[in-house]
């Protein structure tokens, strides 16, 4: 297929997955609105329909909870093809039935991007106006992260569930997950394994614990302070931490443009705290940022694709930069396509099992932005070219093997299409 055929195909996937203002990740496997999927999707829509791009994010924020949280899934209608659905979550914190935790907060960054794309005249004014309407909601959401995902003021953001990280079965969660007691789950039937190859999905032992964490949070009625205090899983995630730090820089830029001085000052404080806090995640032996289990006090022992997001977060000191470049080149000598979600030299790496090895287009996009902004355009371009190759050969799949490029998971995937349109093509 030529690039323009692929552009057409990518647009038609977005249009096909559009449910009337919000987009599902892919039909069948994921039939609801997911948080960070929707935000990346907005980047894709923005290449041909700015208004629709804004709508996507506005509809996501319609589901914001009273406490400020923006849920990871909005269940606008019940769909039996996905498990666990709204009745298993048992939440009541917001206006739309939803899951009970959040997902990586990419929204402020993409909103800034939408404002920056519409650079002239009326379109720019309209974009700023829409950003202004979302701004207080973003502030509330970011305050929620700091209050309930960093209650001890460490300057790092924890996730209370592997799903909150967006990187579900990442090896970094294994040990913390093993410590979760399997309780209050009863018999259940998964749906994901009937849509895609079960050997590529998380295992039953993972799902038992995913559901046990949900049961523990249901028991405290998803009260965020109680969840932070008692949740059996509470792990500081370099992915969410770096995405959040980056999002704060973009939120600050919006605050300055919108003339929100008090908020701008508040955000500057967050940025300073998080820049200092990121050191908590530095693994001196590995020379990279890793996850930190706040319950056990232990750092994890592997490099994930999120380690490379330090640059995207604006952490570009010489040590971080040189270490990441060295890791990048080492990994590039091991696999054909970058960036595997987990270090191929680690024993837990599995090239086709979901977040334990495969390449994800939107992660490549963020890592590449970080390298480019740090002045390393060669490595940034390598990531873009690999992403383009994978899509040209395998189509708009959910994820890809870093070794063979094989397309895997769900097909006709929204965020892969959006990243193609906005960056990889
Ligand atoms: C995957 O996660 C969901 C749970 O949230 C699942 O496996 O059921 C992850 O890849 C996540 O990052 C993504 O947002 C979601 C929808 O694409 O699927």
From TrEMBL:
<dbReference type="InterPro" id="IPR054491">
    <property type="entry name" value="MGH1-like_GH"/>
</dbReference>
<dbReference type="GO" id="GO:0004573">
    <property type="term" value="F:Glc3Man9GlcNAc2 oligosaccharide glucosidase activity"/>
</dbReference>
<dbReference type="InterPro" id="IPR012341">
    <property type="entry name" value="6hp_glycosidase-like_sf"/>
</dbReference>
<comment type="similarity">
    <text>Belongs to the glycosyl hydrolase 63 family.</text>
</comment>
<dbReference type="GO" id="GO:0006487">
    <property type="term" value="P:protein N-linked glycosylation"/>
</dbReference>
<dbReference type="GO" id="GO:0009311">
    <property type="term" value="P:oligosaccharide metabolic process"/>
</dbReference>
<keyword id="KW-0378">Hydrolase</keyword>
<dbReference type="Pfam" id="PF22422">
    <property type="entry name" value="MGH1-like_GH"/>
</dbReference>
<keyword id="KW-0326">Glycosidase</keyword>
<feature type="domain" description="Mannosylglycerate hydrolase MGH1-like glycoside hydrolase">
    <location>
        <begin position="30"/>
        <end position="416"/>
    </location>
</feature>
<protein>
    <submittedName>
        <fullName>Trehalase</fullName>
    </submittedName>
</protein>
<dbReference type="InterPro" id="IPR004888">
    <property type="entry name" value="Glycoside_hydrolase_63"/>
</dbReference>
<dbReference type="InterPro" id="IPR008928">
    <property type="entry name" value="6-hairpin_glycosidase_sf"/>
</dbReference>
């Amino acid at each position: 297929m030529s690039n323009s055929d692929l552009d057409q195909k990518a647009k038609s996937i977005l249009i096909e997955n559009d449910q009337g203002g919000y987009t599902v990740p892919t039909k069948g496997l994921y039939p609801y609105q997911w948080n960070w999927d929707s935000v990346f999707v907005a980047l894709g829509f923005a290449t041909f329909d700015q208004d629709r791009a804004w709508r996507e994010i506005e509809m996501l924020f319609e589901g914001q909870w009273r406490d400020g949280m923006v849920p990871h899934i909005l269940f606008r209608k019940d769909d039996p093809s996905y498990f666990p659905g709204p009745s298993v979550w048992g939440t009541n914190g917001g206006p739309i039935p939803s899951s009970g935790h959040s997902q990586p907060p990419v929204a402020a960054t993409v909103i800034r991007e939408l404002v920056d794309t519409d650079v002239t005249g009326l379109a720019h004014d309209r974009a700023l106006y829409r950003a202004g309407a979302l701004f207080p909601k973003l502030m509330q959401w970011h305050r929620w992260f700091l209050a309930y995902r960093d209650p001890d003021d460490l300057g790092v953001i924890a996730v209370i569930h592997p799903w909150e990280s967006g990187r579900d079965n990442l090896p970094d969660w294994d040990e913390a997950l093993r410590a979760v007691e399997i309780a209050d789950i009863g018999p259940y039937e998964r749906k994901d394994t009937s849509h895609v190859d079960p050997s590529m999905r998380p295992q039953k032992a993972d799902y038992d614990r995913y559901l046990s964490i949900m049961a523990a949070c249901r028991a405290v009625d998803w009260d965020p302070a109680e969840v932070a205090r008692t949740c059996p899983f509470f792990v500081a995630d370099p992915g969410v931490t770096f995405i959040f730090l980056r999002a704060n820089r973009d939120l600050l830029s919006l605050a300055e443009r919108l003339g929100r001085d008090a908020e701008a000052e508040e955000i500057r404080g967050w940025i300073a705290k998080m820049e200092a806090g990121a050191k908590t995640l530095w693994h001196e032996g590995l020379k990279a940022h890793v996850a930190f289990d706040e319950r056990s006090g232990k750092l994890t022992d592997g490099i994930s694709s999120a380690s490379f997001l330090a640059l995207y977060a604006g952490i570009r000191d010489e040590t971080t930069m040189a270490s990441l470049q060295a890791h990048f080149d080492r990994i590039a000598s091991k696999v054909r396509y970058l960036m595997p979600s987990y270090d191929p030299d680690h024993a837990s790496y599995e090239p086709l099992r979901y977040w334990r090895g495969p390449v994800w287009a939107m992660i490549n996009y963020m890592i590449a932005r970080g390298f480019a902004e740090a002045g390393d355009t060669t490595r940034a371009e390598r990531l873009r070219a690999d992403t383009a190759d994978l899509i040209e050969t395998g189509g708009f799949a959910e994820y890809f093997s870093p070794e063979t490029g094989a397309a895997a998971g769900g097909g006709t995937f929204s965020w892969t299409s959006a990243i193609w349109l906005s960056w990889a093509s």
